[in-house]
Design a protein that fits this description.
elongated, single chain
Amino acid sequence: MWRGIGFFRQTKLLLVRFVRLRGLPEEVAKGIALGIFIGMTPTFGLQMVLAIFFAYLLRENRLAALIGVWVTNPITAPVIYAIEYEVGRILLDMPRVNLPGEFSFGAFRDLGYEILAPLWLGGMVAGVLFGSLAYFVTLRLVPLVKEWRIPRWPRRHWHRKK
């Protein structure tokens, strides 16, 4: 029944990939934490490349880092970045920026510092906070999740006569 619905299938496939991750719980937890840290930074579009690069450089689990990066996806990114901007703006004691009347590259380039500085600071704070939290949660969950048996989707038998 649920097989045709892409969201449920993708969620299940992500869970299967997580369960099948190889490595010690600490290695997987470090990869997830690294991915979530990078996912919280305003590097949308480059996050997967950065996750692979830094996971390779730090000798962490690359697949776990890729899974962690998906904390920010097209659905969650606007909410996460808005909250990070507000946190950074409050920490830097900056006024809220008014969006320009025209939506052009030049108009947003002029706003660069007023948007990027709070966004980066808020992203770093969120990255450290949620990356650390993810490390400890993942460290505890990996041994439990490795024992799960996830059933396959029911297969239709086309060759049988009805």
